[in-house]
Amino acid sequence: MGKGKLGICVVGLGIGYAHARNYSKMEDVDLYICDADRAKVERAKAELEVKGTFGTIDEVLESPKIDAVDISLPHDMHKDVAVKAAEAGKHIMVEKPIARNLAEADEMIEAAERAGVKLMVAEWQRFAPSIVKAREFIGEGLLGEVFLVCVYQLGFVRITGWRLSKERTGGGNLIDSGIHAVNALRSLGGADVEIVFSQTTRLVLKEMEGEDTSVTVVRFRNGVVGNLITSWGISTPGPHAYFTVYGTDGSLWEQLGDDGGLYIRSSRLPEADEEPVKVDLPKVSGFEAECRHFVECILEDKEPITGPREARADLELVVAAYRSAETGMPVRLPL
Amino acid sequence: MGKGKLGICVVGLGIGYAHARNYSKMEDVDLYICDADRAKVERAKAELEVKGTFGTIDEVLESPKIDAVDISLPHDMHKDVAVKAAEAGKHIMVEKPIARNLAEADEMIEAAERAGVKLMVAEWQRFAPSIVKAREFIGEGLLGEVFLVCVYQLGFVRITGWRLSKERTGGGNLIDSGIHAVNALRSLGGADVEIVFSQTTRLVLKEMEGEDTSVTVVRFRNGVVGNLITSWGISTPGPHAYFTVYGTDGSLWEQLGDDGGLYIRSSRLPEADEEPVKVDLPKVSGFEAECRHFVECILEDKEPITGPREARADLELVVAAYRSAETGMPVRLPL
């Protein structure tokens, strides 16, 4: 960083493209990219301010221009690339899930600790204004005592390629898109999760090896009950909020569709005592905020909010849910 | 019934008042009422066509004018009154739940069988046009293969009197109002329930002995997963349908509030292939239909749709959910 700007290389231009776009706008970042697919590289070069490109991950890790890598690769590549990046002294942002299983996650976490580099998972939910504000309201006691948190992530996604493979992803829908909803649930529940019970199905995307749908009940250590449904097999969901939090003095939810946004009804808020009110939120996207946070954690030597502890806890809940679905039994955390 | 009209006595004019109103409109029924509360009796006499009144249950059961009783009493009175009614040769409609526990339910069922009288639980959900039509659509295969059924019965009810007592009700919210949602879930799931996992809380109505909120996941024997939330502690729920059924070829739901009603989206229905359509439903209420069904079962010697098997299965799921919530373990049915 002696050279003034932080050199970040986005490795993998799938979801990584969105990260690259965010880094590209930052004054204090030099964006580099690396992808085996030349077309993706050319598109990024045409559309974004790209300082340089790399053909292989080894070249990225050997380059003194690179301070940090953003690993947006299939799940089965996270661990090896992250460990090598740590050993090369590069800070690490890794796309969710941190890894396919806890053993891989722990290797990554240890490697980052040993090397003294930052390790952050790209869990944008934790930076989404609706979740940040909901946590603030809950923390201020506006809902009284919370007793129920529901998160419903329902949609239709035709999965292809490596994401069909249980070996490559570590599971199915829940460890993939679903882990965002897991983070939202954990984040709103206000405590560690104690018990996980889950049932999964795969009737819609029969080409997948893992589940396309999961239904989970958790109990947090503070007694809050959580209810989570995630699915790639629902093209037309019935009316539902993305998340809803119920407390003794009110409720809040993120509404979808027209009039979407965060709503709160609380007997502790005069303006929202009778009818729910829509909350004004900052116009920043969770994606932008997470990328900025990663950069600031490096520049200011801070611990990332979605650092090893958060990243591992999300994955732990997913692994517990899979174990529960397989055995038909609840699973107690920590694993 | 040689006297031309069926003599039905509604015993208990709480929820029983709604039943009395329905019987009162029927040409082939003579309505009698019985309640210790004189004010309720007078109100019913003023508002409904009441053929006669009784001061005590024994008088009801001794009267040759009475062919059938409609027992709308606290749960802890169901069994004794029903068994005596059966022994007196009276047909029996009993308010939900059939009883506080399966032992009581079985005594009632055996007594009715021995006496050769009808026994029906007043589960109006099973007669609600939205549920009847949803079952029809599912049965016709319009949703393809069903994989997920959700039922959310969320509201605020300030519970008082005997309903606060676990001893008198057999539990809390789930065995009381909640059992309607249990019936809806079972009814839409299309098979017997195999596994029940439940968590309950009671943070809002602290004066209750039982739970005010329950969150339950079930697996049906056909592999369908069910997700059920019932609560008396939620004054402002987030957006949700009452029930939603998801299948491989579409979904259907009962929408609440403005534009409430049954909606379906199905790739097998040309008119609902892209966008959900609202379904025309008969203008009959489930309450009316259930009372009429009881009368017809007696007059035409038919087995009630919500007879012993259905009534017991709803209660069995509730009992399993309570056992699960207490132990933290899933419970397998049959108990």
Strand order, sheet with most strands of chain A: 14-13-12-11-7-10-9-8-15
Uncertain stretches of 5 or more adjacent residues of chain A: none
CATH class designation of the largest domain in chain A: Alpha Beta
For the record, give the distance between the C-alpha atoms at the N and C termini of chain A, rounded to a whole number. Answer: 39 Å
| Oligomeric assembly | homodimer
Return the average pLDDT of chain A rounded to an integer.
97
Order of helices and strands of chain A: EHEHEHEHEHEHEHHEEEEEEEHHE
CATH superfamily of the largest domain in chain A: Dihydrodipicolinate Reductase, domain 2
Percent in strands of chain A: 15-25%
- Count of spatially separate domains of chain A: 2
* SS element count, helices of chain A: 10
- The structure class of chain A reads alpha/beta
Global geometry of chain A:
globular
- The count of DSSP E runs of length 2 or more, i.e. the number of strands of chain A, is 15
Query: Most extensive interface, residues per chain?
Result: A-B, 45 and 46 residues
CATH topology-level name of the largest domain in chain A:
Dihydrodipicolinate Reductase, domain 2
Summarize the structure.
With 335 residues, the first copy, chain A, is α/β, with parallel strands linked by helices. Chain A is built from 10 helices and 15 strands.
3D architecture notes:
Two copies of one chain form a homodimer. The first copy, chain A, has helices spanning 16-24, 38-47, 57-62, 75-87, 102-115, 129-139, 166-169, 178-189, 286-299, 308-327, and strands at 6-11, 29-34, 52-54, 68-71, 91-95, 119-122, 146-154, 193-201, 213-220, 225-231, 243-247, 250-255, 261-266, 277-278, 331-332. The radius of gyration of chain A is 20 Å and the shape is globular. The mean pLDDT of chain A is 97. In chain A, strand 2 (29-34), helix 2 and strand 3 (52-54) form a beta-alpha-beta unit. The first copy, chain A, has a nine-stranded mixed beta sheet with strand order 14-13-12-11-7-10-9-8-15. In chain A, strands 3-2-1-4-5-6 form a six-stranded parallel beta sheet, sandwiched between helices. The first copy, chain A, folds into two domains: 6-122 and 287-304, NAD(P)-binding Rossmann-like Domain (Rossmann fold); 126-284 and 316-332, Dihydrodipicolinate Reductase, domain 2 (2-Layer Sandwich), CATH 3.30.360.10. Chain A is α/β, with parallel strands linked by helices and 335 residues long. The interface between A and B is large, with 45 and 46 residues.
